[in-house]
Amino acid sequence: MGTRRIKEEKKVSTEEEKKTVEELKRKKEKIIPKVEKPVVRLIETDIPGHLPIRRAIWHIDGVSFSYGNAVCTIFEEVTGIDRNFLIGNLKDEQLSVLEDIIRNPQKYNIPSWLYNRRKDIYDGKDYHLVGPDVKIKMQLDIKREIEIGTYRGWRHKLGQPVRGQRTRSHFRRGMTVGVIRDKTQKAQQEKK
Question: How many independent structural domains does the chain possess?
Answer without folding.
Answer: 1
